[in-house]
């Protein structure tokens, strides 16, 4: 079965609202609660809660390119979303794009939803 999808981009923040370096901020975009992480001057958007025990990443921190959950200290790669070895889980990472008027976040939209949604 063929599955086609493309990105639908939503403006998340104006330029003056972008999180300062080494901070995490929770926002809502297109009905989804997300965490924005500014780590090493790179903005990453992730799901807002840990898949392990539901801990909120807004209270977490970054370590060696990983997002750390504040509850059980589970770690997730800010690049791939994969949990540390042995965790067997992952988080959703959403593409971000800095544009002239602010930060945009992309969500995959299937061809089927586009046609019939």
TrEMBL record:
Keywords: 2Fe-2S, Dioxygenase, Iron, Iron-sulfur, Metal-binding, Oxidoreductase. The keyword Oxidoreductase applies. Pfam families: Rieske (PF00355). Gene3D superfamilies: Rieske [2Fe-2S] iron-sulphur domain. Its cofactor is [2Fe-2S] cluster. It comes from the Bacteria. CDD domains: Rieske. The keyword Oxidoreductase applies. GO terms for molecular function: 2 iron, 2 sulfur cluster binding; dioxygenase activity; metal ion binding. InterPro entries: Rieske_2Fe-2S, Rieske_2Fe-2S_sf. Residues 9-105 form the Rieske domain. Belongs to the bacterial ring-hydroxylating dioxygenase ferredoxin component family. This is 3-phenylpropionate/trans-cinnamate dioxygenase ferredoxin subunit. It comes from Pedobacter terrae.
